[in-house]
Design goal:
There is one protein chain. This protein has 168 residues and is α/β, with parallel strands linked by helices. It has 2 domains: 129 residues, Rossmann fold, CATH 3.40.50.1970; 33 residues. A 5-stranded parallel beta sheet has the order 2-1-3-4-5. β4, α4 and β5 form a beta-alpha-beta unit. It starts with 5 loop residues before the first strand and ends with a helix.
Length: 168
Amino acid sequence: MDKPLVGILMGSDSDLPVMEKGAQVLTELGVPWEMDISSAHRLPEKTAEYARTARERGIEVLICGAGMAAHLAGIVASHTTLPVIGVPLKSGALSGVDALYATVQMPPGIPVATVAVDGGKNAAYLACSILSIKRPELAQRLEQFRETTRQSLLAASLALQDRLARPV
């Protein structure tokens, strides 16, 4: 595998189903990634070290998913100047709104781009958009993905209109 460009962190293994969706998007678009579990509160030293050494390992964008207090993205952003994308996660009976607020409300100078609750896929697409600034081949793959999506939706629209035009 090529050297990872995206680092994916999550607070616990219960976050894996959402974060794997982002990893799948990165794989489909040909972007190498790495993934680990590192809790902001339960493994603070590991989390800080991961963030501090990411750039020297070749990582260019970090995606951090966490629920409940959801401090992972903010802690990571406080230890690096790389772009950090936060993925607030639903946790048990909690809707994820608490995690959304914790992820998006960062102090000036420590920004975290934040996607929707359980938005692992969009975090990966945003990471790819960032990486595509200096990678024209990735920009082309992203545009092809969007065009395929547009064509699929247009076909679904035509099929619906055709179905609605027929008497039942």
